Amino acid sequence: MQVIGKGYYLGGQTYGENSYISYILSKENGLIKGFTRFTKKKRNSFAALDHISFNWKSRDKDGLGFLNLELVRSSKDPNHSFLFELIKASVSEICIKCMPIWQKNIEIYDTVKSLLNPSRFDEKYICLRYVWWEFLFLKNIGYGLNLNQCAVSGSFDNIYYISPKSGNSVSYNVGKKYEKKLFKIPKCFKNAGEKNNLNDSIEGLEITGYFLKKNFEKRASKLVFREQLIKKIRRT
Description:
CATH topology of the largest domain: de novo design (two linked rop proteins)
Number of helices: 8
Number of domains: 2
Number of strands: 9
Strand content: 25-35%
Radius of gyration: 19 Å
Shape: globular
C-alpha cells in the first residue's frame, strides 16, 4: 500500500541509530506516522509545521510503514518570535498526542494552515489566535464546548459560564450561585477577533487545557511545549 501527498511535519523520535519515527498531518489522511531514515544533517533540517511532501509505504494501514519526506516550504522565518515557535511546537505536540492515526480531519488541517499565516505577529494577537486554535481543535475532534445556549434554562441570553463537567454553557442568572464550580467564559471564546489582554488568553488556555486532559487523559497529561508556552505568556 502506498500513500502520497503533502502535509505538515509534526516531529518524531529517534528509533535505533539512524531511524526516526516521524509524524505528519495530512489533509486527506489525518495523522500519519512511519519509519524515516534520516542522515543527521537532513533530520536537523526539518522543524515543526514545515510544509512537506511525503510517500508512505506499508503492506496495510495497520503497519507502521516507511515514510519518505521532502521539504516543500520551511516554517522558519526570521520574523517569528520565540513565542510563535512555541506555538508551533505546541500545535504539533497536541496533534501527535490527541489525534487518532489515519482519521481524516480537514477542519483541523485547515486551522493549522490558518494559524501559520497570521495577518500580524504582535504577541497579543498570536496568543489569541492560538487559544482559538485549541478551542476549535476540541470542536473539530468531537469535544466542542457549547457556548450558544444555557444548558439549564434554554436561554440564549447572558451566557456567562462553562460547566467543567459537561462543557455546556450556563447563563449568569443560573450559574451565579455556583460560580466557584464553573469556568467564566473569557472574551477570546466569544469573539476570535476581539481585542484582549494576555490574561484573557491565559484564562482561555486554562479552560481548553482542562478539557484536553479531561477528554484525552494520559495522552494530554504532559504537554511539555504547551506548558512552556503558558509560562512564556505569563512572563510576557
